Amino acid sequence: MVSLQTPICDFGRKAIDFDLPGVDGKRYRLADIKGENGLLVMFICNHCPYVKAIRDRIVRDTLELQQHGINSIAIMSNDPAEYDEDSFENMKRVAEAYQFPFPYVWDETQQVAKAYDAVCTPDFFGFNANLELQYRGRLDESRKESAATSAHRDLFEAMVQVARTGKGPIEQIPSMGCSIKWKNNA
């Protein structure tokens, strides 16, 4: 498992459309999930300890962001041949166990992760109402273990700012996580 940090936010970069199958049997496109005030696109997986440490917080924050007009989607782009825990069946189990309040979709070809330049799990992309990138940072100071419950909620506060103003904070701390498990022919 390689630990990586995300690059700095490329402010204004437009969200890239996709059409991906969800664990709920539906297909999802960008237009289907965009919120009134923005969209949070998360690249996550099931096996990564960085993601496991924050799953409860992801659920909490995405539920609260809905009240601010920000919708969310989680994309799993890892090659499950490397980690069976990342299989589509296991994605269904995780989404159900944690009662994900957002679509959890599979990027089997890994083309969406490449189009977004996703590098790790978790990798967060926060877009405004015009689907322009305004946040690419961490959820909070959690790493492989959850941070203190009093930790500053970087992603949540940034996305509330995006909902109110259309602009993300200039100062952003990169997310850190496991590298995306690319297919050999990818």
UniProtKB/TrEMBL annotation:
Coiled coil: none annotated. InterPro entries: AhpC/TSA, PRX-like1, Thioredoxin-like_sf, Thioredoxin_domain. One of its GO terms (molecular function) is antioxidant activity. Residues 9-144 form the Thioredoxin domain. It comes from Sulfurirhabdus autotrophica. This is AhpC/TSA family protein. Gene3D superfamilies: Glutaredoxin (3.40.30.10). It comes from the Bacteria.
